[in-house]
Write a structure and sequence with these properties.
Strands 1-2-5-6-7 form a five-stranded antiparallel beta sheet, covered by helices on one side. Strands 3-4 form a two-stranded parallel sheet. The longest helix has 60 residues. By secondary structure, the chain is an alpha+beta fold. 32% of the residues are buried. It is built from seven helices and seven strands; from the N terminus they run αβββααααβααβββ. Its main location: membrane. Belongs to the GSP K family.
């Protein structure tokens, strides 16, 4: 072989070695990225399962026959450790909320006033909620929003003229912005069909919407928060003792946090008891997985 041919062969070998080295490096980099992604997926899945364990435990405690062991659905935190996660669970009785399809405009406006909405806006939004769910095309007496008002606002849709299916539909109601929605959403539901919420488990804004004075609402909420299962129930402003048993339909927020701070939250609405399928402790009505706000 001539010297020039040997030089060309050497260059070809070096080029092939560089190509193979690049391929190996790319493969190693890709494998590392996939490994990191798989690790992140496993970590998040472990957090989700830990949070879901909180939902299952809440359902078990809500169905507990012993009142001293039953969890109380007023939003108080329940804490436990599970598989390397700290889990915090809060249970709220859906019966303590205003049903968007059953509460009248006066109750809805009262809730907004308790949340410090301006009077005019409270009246307009409560009317718009009523117009969204009712089947007619007539404006609510206090002022609301039908198809022509949506069109005038430049929206491509009008009033639904049918019941709310999920609470998030509120965001489509004319006049509802993100801040107003965030303030209202924790206090409303679509799962009870009750024209008036229960005061036993209701938060202060709902108590005020029911006509309770702010000072009385605060005192009742404080007495309820201080009560522990097994102790004599406190007496409400109406002189009646606190009801220990809930309505059977509950929203549950379960938050699982690792030692490194990674958190996953599962929120669900569950119905305990007879409406669940055979062999199930509860029937899920809503379910959401995500990082907490």
């Amino acid at each position: 072989m001539k010297r020039g041919d040997r030089g060309a062969a050497l260059l070809l070998v070096i080029w092939l070695l560089l190509l193979l080295s690049g391929l190996v490096a790319m493969f190693a980099f890709t494998s590392r990225i996939e490994g990191l992604q798989a690790s992140a997926v496993r970590t998040r899945l472990a957090g989700q399962l830990a949070a879901e364990a909180g939902i299952e435990l809440a359902a078990l405690r809500l169905a507990e026959a012993d009142p001293a062991l039953r969890w109380f659905p007023d939003g108080r935190p329940y804490l436990f450790e599970f598989a390397g996660h700290r889990v915090e669970v809060r249970v709220t009785d859906e019966g303590a909320k205003l049903d968007l399809n059953a509460a009248d405009a006066g109750l809805l406006a009262g809730l907004m006033r308790a949340l410090a909405f301006p009077e005019e806006r409270a009246i307009q939004l409560s009317g718009a909620i009523q117009d969204w769910r009712d089947p007619d095309g007539l404006l609510a007496l206090a002022g609301g929003a039908e198809d022509r008002e949506y069109a005038a606002a430049g929206l491509e849709y009008g009033a639904k003229d049918a019941p709310f299916v999920v609470v998030s539909e509120l965001q489509q109601v004319l006049g509802m912005d993100e801040q107003a929605y965030r303030e209202l959403a924790p206090h409303v539901t679509v799962h009870t069909a009750m024209p008036s919420p229960r005061s036993d488990f209701a938060p202060e804004p709902v108590l005020q919407a029911l006509g309770m004075a702010p000072a009385d609402a605060a005192a009742w909420a404080a007495a309820r928060a201080a009560w522990l299962p097994g102790a004599p129930p406190p007496l409400g402003p109406d002189g009646q003792p606190l009801a220990v048993a809930g309505s059977g339909t509950y929203s549950v927020a379960s938050r699982a946090v690792r030692d490194d701070g990674l958190a996953v939250e599962v929120t669900a609405v569950v119905r305990i008891g007879a409406t669940a399928n055979f062999g199930q402790l509860y029937a899920p009505l809503a379910w959401r997985v995500g990082e907490p706000d």
